[in-house]
Specification:
By secondary structure, the chain is mainly α. The protein contains 18 helices and no strands. It has one domain: Growth Hormone, Chain: A (Up-down Bundle), CATH 1.20.1250. The protein is 78% helix and 0% strand. The longest helix has 33 residues.
């Protein structure tokens, strides 16, 4: 498939819109809505455990669904292209299942609805991630990855404080209208992002003659050529550890603020933290993508790990509202440098013709990190029982270890030059 070499600034926006919409949905659910909803069903001493196991299951679903959807889309052909039909179907199913988060009257019902939502959203997300290798010239992939991350940050930051406001009001007066506003806003944005993508992104469909059977496609959906592409394996392990640090902080931030900072509006402060992360991430993400095109991917990733460790150290020694915001700024710089550069590295490593499948396989690290990081919940509860707040100290130390390992493990990655 030939790639159009003229890639205009507006094209970066077109291929990033749906990512921005997903960035509104998942942080709103994982950081604000689900932690507060679980307080209605989970015992106080086990709230981290409940949240960890719920989101752990969702991450496992993402690990399974994204590569499968991506592999099928690599061999799919229609007049709408290879990726957009999956984005359409997955989004419509996600909008159908999203209300179950508000309708749930028990933990099992919430668990089921959340799992169905994960299936639907990942049907769309796996193929969507192939837009950059499909459509962007090789020498602009770092910039495109930076633009993608920039759009996702803008999406998350722009609406997270609104969702937090709705959920703080729901927590204080139990008026369900606030809950439905919090759930409905991400759903409407996801639907709008899908419509914009369907209308603006133009794909070149794959020739039907190159398509293997559906059975062969699904059977090979999770295969990684470790011998022929060892750099991709190192990339996955490095990405796994860095993202685990980020996901641990994001997942348990609200409970940390509630139990350690003792702020009366934990959802609002959690949103302030993530907005601070987002602002500094915005400042870092696009320049990092550009620098990675010039200096290489590894130096930027090593820098991001160092700044991440400094950010955790600030939070460890300054457990105040001001410390939270300083930590957020440092973590934003770290995340911005990492996310754009790491995604550009992923697009460097994927084999031609298998772009969506391999980029979906990055979800082994992405969702795998989400799954493993959420298992920190039971550990937090265990150590908190031994000594008040000890679990959160252990959590921060573990995050430091993850940042160090993830940065170091990028060093063995080697990228083959392409024409």
């Amino acid at each position: 498939m030939s790639i159009e070499r003229v890639f205009r600034p507006i094209d970066y926006v077109k291929i990033s819109i749906f990512g921005a919409a997903l960035a509104v949905l998942w942080p709103s659910l994982h950081t604000i809505i689900l932690p507060l909803r679980l307080l209605e069903f989970a015992p106080e001493a086990q709230k981290n455990t409940y949240l960890g196991l719920l989101t752990f299951t969702g991450s496992l679903i993402a690990v399974f669904i994204q590569p499968l959807a991506g592999a099928i889309s690599d061999r799919f052909s229609s007049r709408f292209g290879r990726r957009r039909p999956f984005i359409l179907v997955g989004t419509l199913l996600a909008v159908l299942f999203l209300p179950s988060i508000g309708l749930s009257g028990s933990f099992p019902f919430l668990f089921l609805g959340y799992c169905l939502l994960q299936v639907a959203a990942n049907i769309a997300q796996g193929p969507f991630q192939a837009f950059i290798p499909d459509l962007v010239p090789q020498d602009r992939k770092g910039v495109a990855s930076g633009a993608k991350s920039l759009a996702e940050i803008l999406g998350g930051v722009a609406f997270l404080r609104i969702v937090a406001y709705f959920m703080d009001n729901y927590s204080s007066d139990s008026n369900e209208i606030w809950l439905w506003l919090a759930i409905g806003l991400p759903g409407l944005i996801l639907l709008g992002g899908m419509i914009a993508t369907m209308l603006t992104v133009k794909e070149q469909p794959l020739s039907p003659t190159s398509q293997p059977s559906a059975v062969k496609t699904m059977a090979g959906a999770y295969k990684i050529d470790a011998k022929g592409n060892p750099g991709f394996v190192w990339f996955l392990v490095s990405r796994l550890f860095v993202l685990m640090a980020m996901v641990v902080l994001q997942t348990f931030a609200l409970y940390f603020i509630r139990d350690v900072i003792h702020h009366p509006n934990p959802a609002g402060v959690t949103a302030d933290l993530l907005i601070t992360v987002g602002i500094f991430l915005l400042l870092a993400v696009y320049p990092a993508g550009q620098l990675s095109d010039k200096l290489g991917r590894k130096p930027i990733i090593l820098f991001s790990g160092f700044i991440g460790v400094v950010g955790i150290a600030v939070l460890f020694f300054a457990r105040t509202y001001a410390g939270i915001l300083v930590c957020g700024g440092l973590l934003g710089i770290s995340a911005g440098a990492f996310l754009s550069t790491n995604w550009a590295l992923a697009t460097d490593l994927v084999p031609p013709g298998e772009e969506a499948r391999y980029l979906a396989l990055t979800n082994i690290a992405t969702a795998g990190a989400g799954a493993l990081a959420r298992l920190t919940g039971p550990a937090i509860d265990f150590f908190n029982i031994q000594q008040s707040g000890l679990g959160y100290s252990v959590m921060l130390l573990v995050c430091v270890l993850y940042f160090i390992l993830g940065s170091a493990l990028v060093m063995p990655v080697r990228v083959k030059k392409r024409e």
